[in-house]
Design a protein that fits this description.
By secondary structure, the protein is of the alpha+beta class. The protein contains 15 helices and 16 strands. The longest helix is centred in the first third of the chain and has 17 residues.
Length: 417
């Protein structure tokens, strides 16, 4: 027997309603904010992610699924969505199309991580990218969409944390000061922080190991290195969140694991998720388009892990299953009439099914129960002769007669109401 690969999972039919709930909320809200869907390839030239994410990040160094193509080109399964969207944005000259500067995506991403609760090697993200405007109003809009998505799903225990990473020169000054603070206390840091202290200095602030948190309790804050321009930008973002009544917490230790982020950065956590509690995050990336060969143009976006969202969905928001109508056609004429009714129901957008192995009313009703049918249309030879089908409510067991020709329109009206 061949088993699924470690770190991935099958989405089974009983779980699909959870995915529909989250995905439909994503489509509905993104489009209500003026975002248009984009779909990019699941694998790209490896250099796209090395240049955008950063060659010294954990993702590029340890987590990407990279393989050679037959012509020797190095390809990588996308570990995140922003780089692919920006590449498509540049390549297709969408900056010249005002209606395509706000984009969203839903799809699988791939990282070779240690599988654990809330972390998979294939996972799905809902993300948005707004490209072309440096205005802090766009930051507010994107954060608002992020927060409204979770609010619409009635997820409890959420916290929005925000920070500013400044521009590259300010961040470099802070990195130098941070490294000067870390070197004398390096013996008190975990092995991972000792390793990345010189290569990816900011990630030390993100470490969850208690000894590292204690050792860096008095670390300098990036806010003291921000220019008046960056400070003003961030202040306008905070004022906008206050205006929209979106609750937030300032977290001066909040950084991102990808090199392309600048200025506004944010993260939503959910306390019920345990150690892996980040459920959505994002920020501004004003230099990314230029890094990937495009015209200098600012951008901001976020990504949400759908597996984590689905794991905390309250039952009250889960979309109910679509009602199933079962057609029990038996007897020579009943089978033929049942096939015609089955086709007519489906043509009217009604989910309908039958069991072609069943040949008696008793076995048909047993199959209808097994399939979870809401209603059953009973069509035997006698019903066909009288031109009347029996409509049976599988829950109450109540039955009524309907003209066979009227079954599709009658059920369409009743089910839609």
């Amino acid at each position: 027997m061949i088993h699924r690969i470690r770190g991935v999972k099958d989405v089974l039919p009983d779980d699909i309603s959870l995915w529909y709930t989250a995905e439909q909320a994503a489509h509905r809200l993104a489009q209500s904010y003026g975002f248009k869907e984009i779909r990019t390839p699941m694998f790209e030239d490896t250099s796209l992610f090395v240049r955008s994410i950063g060659g010294e990040t954990d993702i590029v160094e340890k987590e990407m699924y990279t393989f050679p193509d037959r012509d020797g080109t190095s390809l990588t399964l996308r570990p995140e969505g922003t780089a692919s969207v920006v590449r498509a944005f540049i390549e297709n000259r969408l900056l010249n199309t005002p209606t395509s500067r706000k984009l969203y995506y839903i799809g699988p991403m791939f990282r070779h991580e240690r599988p654990q609760a809330g972390r998979f090697r294939q996972f799905h993200q809902f993300g948005v990218e707004s490209i072309g405007s440096p205005s802090p109003m766009i930051d507010i809009e994107v954060i608002s969409l992020l927060w409204r998505f979770f609010s619409s799903l009635q997820i409890d225990g959420l916290a929005l944390e925000v920070n500013s990473l400044g521009v590259s020169t300010e961040r470099q000054q802070f990195k130098d000061a941070l490294l000067g603070f870390l070197v004398p206390i390096s013996a008190n840091l975990c092995g991972n922080c000792q390793r990345r202290m010189h290569s990816n200095t900011l990630r030390v602030l993100d470490c969850k190991v208690p000894s590292c948190r204690t050792a860096t309790a008095e670390v300098p804050t990036l806010s003291s290195f921000l220019s008046s321009s960056s400070s003003d930008h961030f202040q306008q973002v905070l004022e906008g969140l206050d205006l929209l009544n979106i609750p937030y917490v300032l977290n001066h230790r909040l950084v991102r694991g990808l090199d392309y982020y600048s200025r506004t950065t944010f993260e939503v956590t959910c306390h019920s998720l345990g150690a892996q509690n980040a459920i959505g995050a994002g920020g501004r990336y004003d230099g990314l388009l230029e890094t990937l060969g495009g015209r200098p143009s600012p951008g901001v976006g976020f990504a949400i892990g759908l597996e984590r969202v689905i794991s905390v969905l309250p039952e009250s928001v889960i979309l109910p299953p679509t009602p199933l109508v079962y057609v029990a056609g038996f007897g020579q004429n009943g089978q033929q009439s049942g096939m015609c009714v089955l086709e007519a129901l489906r043509a009217n957008g009604i989910m309908a099914d039958t069991d072609f192995q069943s040949s008696t009313l008793k076995t048909h009703l047993r199959s209808a129960d097994r399939l979870g049918a809401t209603l059953t249309i009973i069509l035997g030879d006698d019903e066909c002769q009288n031109g009347q089908a029996i409509l049976r409510n599988m829950s109450s067991k109540q039955q009524e007669f309907l003209p066979i020709d009227a079954v599709p329109d009658t059920l369409k009206t009743r089910l839609s109401s």
